[in-house]
Fold this sequence. Notes:
Blueprint: E1 3-13, E2 31-40, E3 43-49, H1 55-59, E4 62-65, E5 70-73, E6 75-77, H2 89-96, H3 101-106, H4 111-119, H5 123-139, E7 142-148, H6 155-171, E8 175-183, H7 194-211, E9 217-221, H8 229-241, E10 245-250, H9 258-265, E11 269-272, H10 278-286, E12 290-293, H11 295-300, H12 308-313, E13 318-320, H13 334-344, H14 349-356, H15 358-363, E14 381-384, H16 391-394, E15 401-406, E16 409-412
Parallel strand pairs: 1-4, 1-5, 6-7, 7-8, 8-9, 9-10, 10-11, 11-12, 12-13
Antiparallel strand pairs: 1-2, 2-3, 5-14, 14-15, 15-16
Helix pairs in contact: 5-6, 6-7, 7-8, 9-10
The structure holds N-(iminomethyl)-L-glutamic acid (NIG) and fe (iii) ion.
Residues 81, 110-111, 114, 221, 249, 252, 297, 323, 325-329 line the site of N-(iminomethyl)-L-glutamic acid.
Amino acid sequence: MNRLIIKNASQLVTCSGFKAKKGKEMNQLHVIGNGAVIVEDGHIMWVGKTPDIPRRLEKVAETIDATGKTVLPGFVDSHTHFVFGGYREEEYAWRLAGHDYMTIMEKGGGIVNSVKQTQGASLDELIRKGMKRLDSMMSFGVTTVEGKSGYGLDMDTEIKQLQVMKKLNDRHKMDVIPTFLGAHAVPINYKGREDAFIDTMIHDVLPEVVGQNLAVFCDVFCEKGVFTVEQSKRMLLAAQAKGLKAKIHADEIVPLGGAELAAEIGAVSADHLLMASDEGIKAMVEQNVVATLLPGTAFSLKEDYARARDMMDAGLAVALATDFNPGSCFTESIPLIIALATLYMNMSIEETITALTLNGAAALDLADTIGSIDVGKKGDLVIHEFPSYKFIPYHIGVTTVEKVIKEGQVIFD
Ligand code: NIG
Ligand code: FE
């Protein structure tokens, strides 16, 4: 038996809940002063005030004194593309010089540039880079991360990327949740034949992904000049029929109707949503689709931010994630996301924390096992250096993380 007690926390912020918090509920964090939490064999078995810790439990246990500190659930980064070969630093420079993301993409840069470099990278190289990137995310307090394929666009490389994530999930202490994003861009040899590309993804690659049990989710880039709503729908329905859950890159640059599609097919989340319509938002509320907002991408592409305030006022469950990728948003920085959400998206500190914990978990359909400090959930906890959670956004752009605990084990100190 392995038991860990964290006690004397100035604030134990539980974020308590077993499903996404919608709208106004996002402001409820549930803060316990002089808090304590006990993790046994990886799972939370007791939460309360330090003086109430049952004596019998205190006898055999490793103890961490969190005096003057704040304890939070581990952050859940529910949207990333962290497995890729090569980099696109030249494109970043072009963007600074005034070229926009879609123009660069039309010139053969963009996603297909990373595709070439990922096709050329070995499994070992991708694993090595992946481990380093996970270490960096962990230092920001992330304990679960979603990762997408989509820099393959062919059978071998899509499978390679997903196998890398499987290996990383085994090797790294963090949990990696894999998403098949075969329909991420149109490869050059399929230009003008997008339907044929979707057909091969559905009939050739998807069965292999499912057969090898390599993905939990399927995602598509539903965007003008990439895949239409109809093509996205075909891909996602086929994936759902094979047992994968759906996510969508929706209404990022043009209001195409991705939010509406997410509601129609019962996607777990729709992501980006900078241009989502009021009808789309309403439909998502009714169907309990999580809105995953990615302010790092809007920041890096100099786009307007998603309408987080309107979405929460309409009753949506909002999650925040980094969208870490080599093109539109090369950052895994949680402090940056927190700064953007609180300063530029009109999200309260409490809403921002909910969006990165419980609602991030809900965006991965995992709100029953992670995302809050509740009895029965995984013991994924982060100790922050200050006595109140309000320091987390206040220390702008700098991490406040001191210790990261995954399933009751200290993994970063
Ligand atoms: O979420 N929008 C599409 N996919 C990524 C960008 C990936 C890339 O540029 O490499 C995104 O922003
Ligand atoms: Fe993305």
